[in-house]
Write a structure and sequence with these properties.
The chain is of the alpha+beta class. The protein contains five helices and six strands; from the N terminus they run αβαββαβαββα. The protein has a domain of 66 residues: VC0802-like, CATH 3.30.2130.10.
Amino acid sequence: MTRTRYPKPIAALRELSRKPSFRAAPVRGLDQRATMPTTIRKVEYAYFTVANRSGEAARILEALRDANINLLAFSGFPQGRAKAQIDLVTDNIDALKATAKRFKCKLSRTKRAFLAQGTDELGAALPPMNKLAAAKVNVIAADAVVAGEGRFGMLFWVAPRDYRRAAKLLEVP
């Protein structure tokens, strides 16, 4: 039997993962040290696909500001070499659609996610993730940020087929 040789950094990570302190504990319900975020709510979003060059996000954000569109979250990331995706989470998706139409920009169809907001504490994002994991609901993406003054926010997505079930598990109306 031949032994697989890994580059030193990978070998070090493999060694660390064998130590009990590095392994994740099995999901057995909610971690009792962190409490559920103050609020979790359903949100709608849509995205633009734009050229991946400087100023595109600023141009979109300026148009949204001028149209008085309140954003709950904004995320931009590359999509291949020449394009970027700009996700816009708002509490007024109809106004976002109207603004996109006015500027002749192609907006994606409306999609859904969850927005958690609450007190920033150690493990603040863990309770909703644990609750979904325990029910075998896969979180397909998540972004979290500290908002200052002891607050945090987290945007997370589940597969469309799991959305209603996740909302029920998280007790989101």
